[in-house]
C-alpha cells in the first residue's frame, strides 16, 4: 500500500557540516604497513654494499684490483642470494592477516557513517516536506476557513469550512512540531560527532513523541475521503490547482504529502535496525542502539493494525479514482476486502456471461470492466450490489444449471448507494461462477462476514433511532446522555474489521 511513503517530496537537502572522524588516522591500511615492498628493501641494501666496493686504492695493481673486485662481487652475489632466500620466508607471511580486525572495524565505521548521513538527509527532506504542507496548503486554508465575512454579490465562496479543515489535516501541525525538534536534536548531536559518540539517547528522546502518529493514523481515512470530496468542489479545486504550481513542490500534490507520514515509522525501523547492526560490540553506543531497535520494532508492532488500515484506505482511494461512471463516492468507513475475476451465470441459457472484475468492499460488491488507455487503467463501472440484508450461499452443480463452483447472492436492494438512494427495486439474484471450491469457499466466507457486519451496524442504527425517538417524546431533562457518539464509534470499528 502504499510505495511513495518512504521518500520525501522535498528537494535534496544541503550537505550537513560536522567534524571529520579521526578513526582512520589510527588504522593503517594493509598496503601501508611498510614504506615499500620487503623485496625492494633488501635489494636496496645489496646495491649499497656493491657500490661501496667500486672505490679501490690507486696503489693496487690491476690484478689485485681484478682479484679483489671478483672476490667482492662474489661476496655481494652470495649476500644477494642469501637475501633472496630470506625473502622467500617473508613471502610466506600473509600481511593482510595482521590487519583483518582493523579492516572490519573500518568497514563498520564507514557503514555507520553512511547510515547516519542517510538518517540526517531523510529527516531533513521529510521535515521540509511537512513544512511545505504548512506553508503552501495548511496555513492559507486555515485563514480561509476562519474567515467569517462573505462577499455575497461577488459570489465569493469559502474554500473549506473549519470542520473540513480539521478533518483534512487532523494533528498534522503536531507532526511538524515534533519533527522540527527531532531535526534540531540530530543537528546538535552531529556538531560534536566523533568515532565514539553515541546517538541512542537522541533516539530515545524522540520515541515518546511518536505517539502522535497513532492520532494521525486514526484520522487518516477521514483525511483522505475529505480530500477526495473537496477535490470535486470548485473553489477547493481551484485553490489546489493554483497551489500545485508552486515550484518548490516539484510535482508533489497535497494528497501525496498527506499520505507521506504513514511511512515515517517504517523508515525509522529500517535505519535504526541497520545502525544497530553496523555498530561494533565494543562501541559505547552498542547496547543503547540495540535497545532503541527493540523499542521501535515494538512500537511498529503495536500500531501495525493502524498501518495496515492506512494501506487499505490508500487502495480504496486508488480504486475509486480509477472508477468511471460509478454512482457512489468514497466513504471513510469503506475498506477493501477482496477482489477477483468472476463470471455471472445466466440460468435460463445455462451459460456464463462476460468475465468481470468483482471488488468486494466492506459495504458493497462492485463489478467493473478494466480498460487500459495510455498505460493508465480505468475501471468502467458495470454495476454493484448493496450487501446490507443480503444472502449468500454456495450452489450445487445441479442448482447452477450444470455449472460447478458457483455461488448465489440475493441482494435486498439494487440501484444507487443506500445512503443516497434514489431508486430501489425488487431483490436481485446474482449467480457467479468461481474457479474452484477453495476460491468459492473463500468468497462465501468473506461475503458472509461483510453481510453480518452490515446487519449489525443496521441494528445499531435502528436502536439509535429508537432511542432518539424516545428522547424526543420524553419530558425535557429526564434523559441527559446521548448515545450518538457511542453508536457511531461502534459502527466505525465494525467497518474497520475488514482492513
Describe the structure.
The protein has 499 residues and is of the alpha+beta class. It has three domains: 60 residues; 192 residues, Up-down Bundle (Dbl Homology Domain, Chain A); 153 residues, Roll (PH-domain like). The protein contains 15 helices and eight strands. An eight-stranded mixed sheet has the order 1-5-4-3-2-8-7-6, covered by helices on one side. The longest helix is centred in the first third of the chain and has 46 residues. About 21% of the residues have low confidence. Pfam families: RhoGEF, SOS1_NGEF_PH.
Considering the chains and any ligands shown, give keywords for the structure.
PH-domain like, 8 strands, Dbl Homology Domain, Chain A, alpha+beta, 8-stranded mixed sheet, 3 domains
Ordered list of secondary-structure elements with their pairings:
Layout (H helix, E strand, L loop, with lengths): L37 H15 L9 H30 L8 H46 L16 H8 L2 H20 L8 H7 L5 H7 L1 H11 L3 H10 L10 H6 L4 H14 L8 H17 L1 H19 E2 L11 E11 L4 E11 L2 E10 L2 E11 L4 E5 L10 E6 L16 E6 L3 H37 L10 H12 L4
Parallel strand pairs: 1-5
Antiparallel strand pairs: 2-3, 2-8, 3-4, 4-5, 6-7, 7-8
Helix pairs in contact: 1-2, 3-4, 3-5, 3-11, 4-8, 6-12, 8-13, 11-12, 14-15
Amino acid at each position: 500500500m502504499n510505495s511513495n511513503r518512504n521518500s520525501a517530496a522535498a528537494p535534496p537537502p544541503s550537505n550537513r557540516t560536522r567534524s571529520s572522524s579521526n578513526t582512520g588516522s589510527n588504522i593503517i591500511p594493509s598496503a601501508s604497513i611498510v614504506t615499500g615492498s620487503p623485496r625492494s628493501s633488501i635489494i636496496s641494501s645489496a646495491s649499497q654494499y656493491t657500490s661501496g666496493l667500486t672505490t679501490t686504492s690507486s696503489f693496487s695493481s690491476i690484478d689485485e684490483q681484478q682479484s679483489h673486485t671478483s672476490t667482492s662481487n662474489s661476496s655481494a652475489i652470495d649476500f644477494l642470494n642469501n637475501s633472496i632466500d630470506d625473502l622467500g620466508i617473508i613471502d610466506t607471511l600473509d600481511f593482510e592477516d595482521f590487519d583483518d580486525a582493523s579492516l572490519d572495524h573500518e568497514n563498520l565505521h564507514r557503514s555507520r557513517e553512511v547510515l547516519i548521513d542517510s538518517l540526517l538527509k531523510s529527516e531533513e527532506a521529510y521535515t521540509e516536506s511537512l513544512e511545505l504542507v504548512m506553508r503552501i496548503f495548511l496555513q492559507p486554508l486555515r485563514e480561509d476557513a476562519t474567515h467569517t465575512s462573505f462577499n455575497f454579490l461577488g459570489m465569493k465562496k469559502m474554500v473549506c469550512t473549519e470542520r473540513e479543515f480539521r478533518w483534512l489535516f487532523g494533528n498534522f501541525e503536531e507532526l511538524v512540531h515534533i519533527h522540527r525538534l527531532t531535526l534540531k536534536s540530530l543537528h546538535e548531536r552531529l556538531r560534536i560527532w566523533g568515532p565514539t559518540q553515541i546517538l541512542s539517547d537522541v533516539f530515545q528522546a524522540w520515541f515518546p513523541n511518536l505517539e502522535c502518529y497513532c492520532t494521525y493514523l486514526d484520522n487518516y481515512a477521514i483525511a483522505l475521503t475529505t480530500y477526495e470530496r473537496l477535490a470535486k468542489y470548485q473553489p477547493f479545486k481551484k485553490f489546489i490547482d493554483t497551489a500545485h504550481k508552486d515550484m518548490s513542490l516539484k510535482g508533489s500534490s497535497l494528497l501525496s504529502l498527506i499520505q507521506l507520514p504513514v511511512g515515517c515509522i517504517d523508515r525509522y525501523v529500517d535505519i535504526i535496525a541497520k545502525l544497530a547492526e553496523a555498530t561494533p560490540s565494543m562501541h559505547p553506543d552498542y547496547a543503547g542502539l540495540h535497545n532503541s531497535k527493540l523499542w521501535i520494532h515494538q512500537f511498529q508492532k503495536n500500531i501495525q493494525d493502524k498501518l495496515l488500515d492506512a494501506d487499505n484506505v490508500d487502495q480504496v482511494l486508488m480504486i475509486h479514482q480509477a472508477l468511471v461512471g460509478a454512482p457512489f463516492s468514497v466513504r471513510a468507513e469503506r475498506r477493501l476486502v477482496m477482489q477477483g475475476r468472476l463470471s455471472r451465470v445466466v440460468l435460463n441459457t445455462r451459460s456464463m456471461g462476460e468475465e468481470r472484475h468483482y471488488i468486494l468492499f466492506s459495504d458493497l460488491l462492485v463489478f467493473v470492466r478494466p480498460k487500459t488507455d495510455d498505460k493508465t487503467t480505468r475501471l468502467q463501472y458495470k454495476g454493484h450490489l448493496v450487501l446490507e440484508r443480503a444472502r449468500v450461499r454456495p450452489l450445487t452443480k445441479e442448482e447452477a444449471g450444470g455449472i460447478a463452483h458457483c455461488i448465489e447472492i440475493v441482494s435486498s436492494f439494487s440501484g444507487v448507494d443506500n445512503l443516497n438512494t434514489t431508486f430501489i427495486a425488487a431483490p436481485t439474484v446474482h449467480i457467479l461462477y468461481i474457479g474452484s471450491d477453495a476460491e468459492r469457499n473463500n468468497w462465501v466466507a468473506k461475503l458472509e462476514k461483510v453481510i453480518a457486519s452490515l446487519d449489525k451496524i443496521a441494528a445499531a442504527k435502528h436502536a439509535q433511532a429508537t432511542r432518539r425517538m424516545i428522547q424526543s417524546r420524553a419530558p425535557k431533562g429526564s434523559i441527559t446522555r446521548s448515545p450518538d457518539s457511542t453508536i457511531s464509534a461502534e459502527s466505525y470499528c465494525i467497518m474497520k474489521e475488514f482492513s
